[in-house]
């Protein structure tokens, strides 16, 4: 109550100040439901005065003043749209520089802005800010996706100074929020334990989420979060912002609750060991910070992101995906042409579209028979594959399936010919002992020669084998002892390495996609060690975790689903976990379905079930890929989990339900209220993936109204005897 009284007094004081006589520039950044309002003060500093639900009368934006301005009239100290360092600002900066003369001060004054419509849905607003003393210019970009309620924000920093300017910190976004309280949900983990959520109330001070790992930067923490305002948001209620940084390297996100209990958010590349020199007339573009806001809970916010990602970001996001059989858990490194040919037949028998050959197919001087050698030597191993990859592609095609292959082109084993020939291509300190993860080191992608080498690996595979239909691109090590022989030789700053590595990776991927635009590619990094929306411009899907235990995957995929649609998520049926084959299959059907099992070891009923499951999946996968996702029962808070996908037309849906724990009961004995249906339509339900010899507990002759299913609910009958259930719901 006292805060609101104080703010009313503050507004009255500001209203009688010189600011009232100054005509401010007001820039609303609008989507269909929301708005970010930017406004200049009396000194032409640009601040954020409002963020949230869009007003029906835009003229009223001029009435809004920030409720965190100090009484001494120094507007923008807290609510700056892009906070500079070294002058009037006393908060954590978005931009910090050292000028060519060594001075570290910076001010940013509004100059101009422009909004251009790319089409009926997409608009781009650019706002130019300049330092009145030094020749430094910043352009803030806000790209809005109107219908999806998504904003993509970045900055471009330019210098006209005669001497190089050093960027000490260079955020992509600087946002400001006013609310009663703030609740941050972020994620932690490690290999096979990805996406563990933690929710905390933010208090005074700065909460930092960051990565300093270089490659595989998301291993311990992804650049994604949700932020609830006033109170913790649920699936269907509450104000919430979902945010993610589109960058495949070190990131930093700072959440600062200021002296007035308002919240500043800074997001961008981590400046750790990454001071970046900017020569005269050069510019530096920061990666995109992507966010969506909803006043109706996390469910609506995540559907906003899904709709945007499928249409505008994920490669072929509105297309489809192939089912596959992977050999990794069937053979590991121990295989030959005959073994693989038999697996091709197993894939055809199973009914999948594609066979994926995993690690171990290359290197001769140091054969790739374990993860300790051969990485970097991308010639077929003549002992395992005497007739080469081309023979395997043709054999797979003869069997009736397509062929895909695993690569890890950014990495090298010290025990390899590549390392012997080009030690200068490897990221390592010249005078310190090498430190490995999975017995390997990253190649230096800041080096154009290395970029050409990495591109050449894939180009050679495709040129010699144009029918390769799928690539699994892995990245299994972080960056230790960062040092670039190339940067040293070319007399460039070593502090460029972390940033230029990622830029080099994108150059390779951009060149690859220009020549091979349609090949399906999985983004893998020992699991979810590199998952972001810049990389997903070039990949059709990602591998969430090497942990394929289906019980664990329910929780992981639940959390990933807030930020990524199911068409981007790879899920395999494996032998991990203690659950029956049906449970493992049902869980994997919530993404791009694959198998990593020995098909020949399946008994008659297991094989029959799997064949039917692939057929069922192919019949409903478009609903799963393109439908709206509704998370109905949270496995973290209940003994069972339930979610469903519904088409935009509300004519078809698929419901998944799983028993995740029955210490306190025998599963679900109460109906689940469904979502995403049409209350006026009638629906029939049908259980999919029934194991041979079992009968459904669902009455398939019953007709339900959409109103009934969403109000009274539907009981999928999940219990200790029916631990997983898949239901198809179709309008009559």
From TrEMBL:
Record's keyword terms, sorted: Glycosidase, Hydrolase, Signal
InterPro entries the record matches: Aldolase_TIM, Alpga-gal_N_sf, Alpha-glycosidase_related, GH, Glyco_hydro_27/36_CS, Glyco_hydro_36, Glyco_hydro_36_C, Glyco_hydro_36_N
Molecular function terms from GO: alpha-galactosidase activity
EC number: 3.2.1.22
Every Glycosyl hydrolase family 36 N-terminal domain range: 44-279
Positions of transmembrane segments: none
All copies of domain Glycosyl hydrolase family 36 C-terminal, residue ranges: 641-727
GO BP, sorted A to Z: carbohydrate catabolic process
Binding site for substrate: 191, 358-359, 438, 472-476, 524, 546
Active site, per annotation: 474 (nucleophile), 546 (proton donor)
Broadest EC class assigned to this enzyme: hydrolase
Catalytic activity entry: Hydrolysis of terminal, non-reducing alpha-D-galactose residues in alpha-D-galactosides, including galactose oligosaccharides, galactomannans and galactolipids
Signal peptide from the UniProt entry: 1-22
Family designation: Belongs to the glycosyl hydrolase.
Name of this chain's protein: Alpha-galactosidase
Protein species of origin: Dyadobacter koreensis
